[in-house]
Write a structure and sequence with these properties.
The chain is an alpha/beta fold. It contains 30 helices and 40 strands. The strands form 6 sheets. An 8-stranded mixed sheet has the order 1-2-3-4-5-6-8-7, with helices on both faces. The protein is flat, with a radius of gyration of 32 Å. Residues 427-443 have low confidence and may be disordered.
Length: 896
């Protein structure tokens, strides 16, 4: 049996967490499909066919298994080779409409089989240009009515006697995607229960040698106080470390929910297959070094038998819930119970985060070492933490992303409820720097990841140390309302260091108001200065410092307070503990207070506070400032509305697909479009272009110039040949031409210098003065389309003044793109010429985003320069590269 290339087989989760395979119907499915119908109860047959007839089963199976034909698709859901559901559509008379039929095996209703099939069928239909499903059902068929309603799509109904006709619009708006997210979250969390809340755990590969990983895992599980039943698999012994051992998984007295595999790589696939056949629901594979065949066999066993998988090449998993107390890791110590969820691909990073959270006293709710991440991912863990009722801080270390757009949607939702912090492990892809187009050169891997993190509200740090510093603040203190910081110190030099660190981190140190100055001087010792920083002097006492902080933390002009202290002989002589003034003072309300102690040995620690909370204490002012800046950015992100995706008027996506498909049919390997095709594609999206004409001879160029003559009669001539990108660098552009002689001379010059290459020229009127900008798209194979915007012209790469966001762009994303680059003041009239057409600029970016979303074939688009004036926005030069790519729905529920 081979998969239909239009609908490749995938695995997905049902509501109860079990795995099914969704694939196209094949001719040899006929008997199973007929059996699916024949095994239905008479009542279900009546609901499906409006009458009870066993002949209907054969007819329905015949129809589904007919040879592939235009306007028809049929998908099945199967579990361990057994078909349990069918969904198909048949196109009706209208081009964009199809009738849908659905069947689910008796006994498997309310598991989400039908909903999952319809989601996948709708995605396939959209790819075929079908945007409406219709379905006729008996009005008493409440189950199918509820299924259609709960999809999240717009459904209208028309009752005709005993029947109801449902019309389902397939456009996937945010309501639909939110409903898909909710279903996916329910299924995902259910599938992780056997992994993170197992009742029985077995370890395969526990040896008698004290240094073996399997033995260390078994020891950790036993000494960690696992509340369930613990078993070992080793054919050579009857017990290990006091744990009963059995010769094989099949010989275990009870079926384990979770099996931890620590065997040599060659044995892993066979053990996984044995676990699957026995009915095990989850695996943790710590073994490293699997070759390609072993890896494929491991994943096949997990998918075939519906097992969730952590690893391979991982440290293990830990769950500190007192009802479970699962520590299936070989870390040096047991993690401290707490409220931080930790997931890391690197075992070393995972250990560092576990130790850091334990040392800070924050502790861990759940730890998962993702390893090579064949299955369970950061997206899975975010959904688990969102639902576990314990986790209030999520820490991620991800070296790769399987489905960044699905991850982004999950992260945007989760970060509204809890901080999500990550170590940005991405690196700039040096190969992109050598790319041909401006867009590809600008769209580095780092920029792409930063766009993902920014749009999703994830706090991205640059190191493990910075992540721990920020996590300490998020855990211990409220978020600041803004960026205004007051610095207080007992030593002028320490205050200067703290003030510099805050300013460099993008925080603001406002001058205190006269009233605040008077209030502070009233409580500080003689000689103190009440600026910002506030120098309380070495003579300040504990009580005086406490009174100073009380005034600062209640002042409306202060969002946060940083207290930088150094030990002094004065404090030692008087017995004052200045740090105690920070930690044991009255409650500070909603303003965070951070302590900097330059003599502190640890980079960051949490000091107990009088109100039962904690105060973060840092050894370096830069660490405190970085953490506070991250907190201020989180405040700003939470205050922003989610944003809306706009669909500009005057776009013809269907025509754009026709243009792209026709060009790729003639150029199967893809490439850069010729000027005429490029202009036609841009016209489909209403992109404003400068008037132009194509000329292949000298006389054609003269006629084009006459036809395009503007008020000043000056022209631009640009050479073209396949593969030409940087015209200015090749000296393939003539500017400021006027009159027939100059046009002819320019054409002859290009023809002579580029003999054998030149295929024609583009003639345009010389553009008016304005701000030259750059807008483009780079299609990332993993992250999807990245929209880049900034300063344009010939120096765009020299200045690298760009901002970037992942498509689809919301109105807020577009605002960030326009205001992000350093050149932004020019757009708002900083030179006195007045602002450019900002509405037109927003429209251009929305249209570019929609083009990138519509066309998976679009590898790059490069608009440079884009002329921005108060009177309008015009693309003066555009290049587009297409590649033969298939569309893939990034929000379709599927396992990796």
């Amino acid at each position: 049996m081979t998969d239909d290339p239009r609908s490749p087989a995938i695995h997905a989760l049902l509501v109860d967490g079990t795995t099914v395979r969704i694939r196209a119907v094949a001719p040899d499915d006929h008997d199973q499909l007929q059996g699916l119908y024949e095994e239905m109860s008479p009542e279900n047959l009546r609901m499906r066919f409006f009458a009870v007839s066993r002949r209907s089963a054969a007819v329905a199976a015949d129809h589904a298994c007919m040879t592939a034909r235009p306007g028809h698709r049929a998908l099945v859901a199967e579990r361990q080779g057994q078909i349990i559901g069918l969904a198909e559509y048949q196109q009706e008379g209208e081009r964009d409409t199809a009738e849908i039929a659905l069947a689910v095996a008796d006994g498997l209703h309310h598991r989400g089989v039908g909903t999952l099939l319809v989601e996948h069928l709708a995605s396939a239909a959209r790819a075929d240009g079908i945007m409406v499903f219709t379905a006729d059902a008996l009005s008493e068929n409440r189950e199918v009515m509820r299924l259609f309603t709960d999809l999240g799509l717009r459904v209208t109904r028309r009752v005709d006697g005993p029947e109801t006709r449902c019309v389902i619009a397939l456009d996937p708006d945010d309501t639909y995607l939110t409903a898909v997210d909710a279903r996916g979250r329910t299924a995902d969390v259910a599938s992780l229960e056997p992994l993170l809340r197992p009742r029985t755990v077995a370890v395969v590969g526990s040896g008698r040698h004290p240094g073996s990983v399997g033995r260390a895992l078994l020891h950790h599980l036993r000494t960690g106080g696992f509340t369930g039943r613990l078993l070992a698999v080793n054919p050579n012994v009857s017990a290990l470390l006091g744990v009963p051992s059995y010769p094989a998984v099949g010989a275990l007295p009870v079926l384990p929910d979770l099996v931890v595999i620590a065997t040599p790589a060659a044995a892993v696939p066979a053990v996984a297959e044995e676990c699957g056949k026995a009915g095990v629901r989850a695996l943790v594979v710590v073994t490293a070094g699997l070759d390609t065949g072993q890896a494929a066999a491991l994943l096949t066993a997990c998918r075939t038998h519906g097992m969730r998988l952590v690893g391979p090449n991982c440290l293990g998993v830990s769950q500190t819930d007192p009802a479970v107390r699962l520590d299936a890791t070989f870390a040096a110590t047991h993690p401290r119970p707490g409220t931080a969820g930790v997931a890391a691909q690197s075992g070393g990073v995972g250990i560092a985060l576990l130790e850091g959270m334990s040392r800070l006293g924050i502790g861990v709710s759940t730890f998962v070492s993702l390893g090579d991440k064949y299955d369970v991912s950061g997206n899975d863990m975010l959904q688990w933490w969102e639902s576990d009722g314990v986790t209030d801080l999520a820490l991620l270390h991800l070296e790769s992303f399987g489905n960044p757009r699905a991850f982004s949607r999950t992260a945007r939702r989760v970060t509204r409820r809890m901080p999500v912090l990550t170590v940005d492990a991405g690196r700039t892809d040096a190969g992109r720097q050598a790319a041909a187009s401006h867009t590809a050169a600008a769209a580095t891997g780092t920029m792409t990841r930063q766009a993902l993190f920014t749009q999703a509200g994830i706090t991205a740090t640059r190191s493990i140390g910075e992540l721990l510093e920020t996590a300490a603040l998020f855990h211990a203190q409220p978020l600041p309302a803004g960026t205004r910081v007051a610095v207080v110190t007992n030593a002028g030099g320490a205050g200067v260091l703290a003030a510099d660190a805050c300013a460099e981190a993008g925080l603001v140190l406002p001058a205190p108001t006269p009233e605040l100055v008077d209030d502070l001087l009233d409580v500080l010792p003689s000689g103190a200065s009440a600026g910002n920083p506030v120098d309380a002097t070495a003579a300040v006492t504990e009580d005086e410092l406490r009174a100073c902080l009380d005034r600062l933390t209640t002042h409306r002009g202060v969002d946060a307070v940083v207290v930088a202290l150094v030990p002094t002989a004065v404090a030692a002589a008087t017995g004052d503990d200045l740090a105690r003034a920070v930690t044991q003072g009255p409650a500070r309300g909603d303003r965070p207070v951070l302590l900097v102690r330059l003599e502190q040995e640890l980079p960051v620690s949490l000091l107990p506070a009088g109100d039962g909370g904690t105060v973060p204490s840092y050894a370096e002012p830069q660490a405190a400032a970085r953490a506070l800046a991250h907190a201020a950015r989180r405040t700003a992100w939470l205050a922003r509305p989610p944003g809306t995706t706009r669909v500009p008027d005057g776009m013809d996506g269907a025509r754009a697909h026709e243009v792209a498909d026709a060009w790729l049919a003639a150029h199967p390997d893809g490439g850069w479009l010729d000027p005429r095709t490029c202009a036609e594609l841009l016209t489909c999206y209403g992109v404003p272009q400068s008037p132009w004409a194509w000329a292949e001879t000298e006389d054609d160029a003269v006629l084009a110039a006459e036809r395009l003559r503007g008020p000043d009669g000056r022209f631009v001539m640009k050479a073209h040949w396949p593969g030409l990108l940087h015209k200015s660098a090749q000296h393939a552009v003539h500017l400021d031409l006027s009159g027939e002689p100059q046009v002819r001379a320019a054409f002859r010059d290009l023809q002579t210098r580029f003999s054998g290459l030149l295929t024609g020229v583009v003639v345009q009127p010389l553009a008016a003065r304005g701000t030259e900008l750059f807008a483009g798209v780079a299609q990332d194979e993993v992250f999807g389309p990245l929209v880049v915007f900034g300063l344009g012209g010939t120096a765009t790469e020299v200045f690298a003044d760009h901002a970037a966001r992942l498509a689809p762009l919301t109105d807020l994303d577009v605002h960030d793109l326009i205001t992000g680059p350093r050149c932004a003041p020019l757009l708002f009239g900083a030179t006195g010429a007045g602002p450019v057409d900002l509405d037109g600029l927003e429209q251009l970016l929305h249209r570019l985003s929609r083009m990138a979303e519509d066309l998976p074939q679009l590898a790059e688009a490069d608009f440079n320069p884009v002329l921005a004036t108060p009177g309008g926005i015009t693309v003066l030069d555009a290049r587009v590269r297409l590649l033969p790519r298939r569309s893939q729905d990034p929000y379709l529920r599927r396992l990796r």
